Amino acid sequence: MEIHQLRYFAAIMDEGTFTAAAQRLHVSQSGISTQVAKLEAELGQQLLDRSGRRIRLTPAGEAVLPLAKNALATLEAIQHTAAEFGNAVRGRIRLGMIMGCSIPPFLDTVADLGRTHPGIELSLHEDHSDELQTRVLSSSLDLALIGYAGDVAPGLEVSVVLDEPITTLVPVGHPLDRAELRLADLRGHKILCLSPGTGIRSAYEDSCRRIGLDPRVDIDASSPATLLHLAERGAGVAVLSSSSTQGTGLRSIPLADAATHARLGLIARRGQHFPAVQLLRSKLLAALRPD
Question: Whole-prediction pTM value?
Answer without folding.
Answer: 0.66
